[in-house]
Predict the structure.
Amino acid sequence: MLRARESKMLTADRAARMLDAASFEECAKLLCDCGYEDMSAMSAAEIDTALASHRDELFAELDGLLPDKSLLDLFRLKYDYHNAKTVIKGEAAGQSIEHIMSGSGRVAPEKLKIAFDEERLSELPAALGAAMAEAAETLARTANPQLADFELDRAYFAEMSAIAATLGDSFIDGYVRLLIDTANLKSAVRTARMHKTADFLAGALIKGGVDPDRIASADADGLAAIFAHSPLEKAADAGAEAISGGSMTVFELECDNAVIAYIRGAKLSSYGPDVAAAYLAAIENEITAVRMILTGTLAGVSKETIRERLRDTYA
């Protein structure tokens, strides 16, 4: 059934036709063929809301179709941890944050916020609750939101790795490892660009992929060598150039394209958890592309600039 859905996904050709459309309204209407509601009369904020609802509806539908709910949890996790970061930093800053929380996680946003506000974190999934407590303590002690984010990022990827292990699928295990390696490569390049210390980088790196100690001790050429002959080879080369003043946009594009290239490998399978995982990852990528095209077009960003920033498509 998921294979049948892929025929409606955003292809490179469809994305090109959207960008070549004569108006924003025409651009948006082309998406109706991909199963999206008509967004031709929406503002940028309304588009964000519509795309979030589209993802929520897909998740809810797949929740009733997938035999193993932990596969969907693998993708819901990101939104739980986004909400956790939002709640902790919003509370510390005394800001209202409900409007930027996501409903795509395992835990309803309002439940997560109440659990934090009323110190009932034990009511949340164990790893999430423990990570929120640790992150809140770190923020209170250091007044550094970035260090609190590091705590939550470590817990997020640890949960992903644990779910992948229970699924016992080599494709999904490789996908999670690639996400960890991509996050670590991005951290290494950004740290070098900002001239931060090795200790700072060590605090940001995640276990579960390439040995973090190797990444922490590598210079630009060393990073390229570490990821040579891997899915991140081109990204690491672009990262080495970015460290020397090259384009961060090109580097991050190569990182994301490496993940898309990996999930395309599931097209060789007719069924199984790898097919579902690839579809879910592809949908996430598609929604990002749709948002970039629609909001960019609405804001008057040039077609050439949007094309340069678009990631590869799965379909």
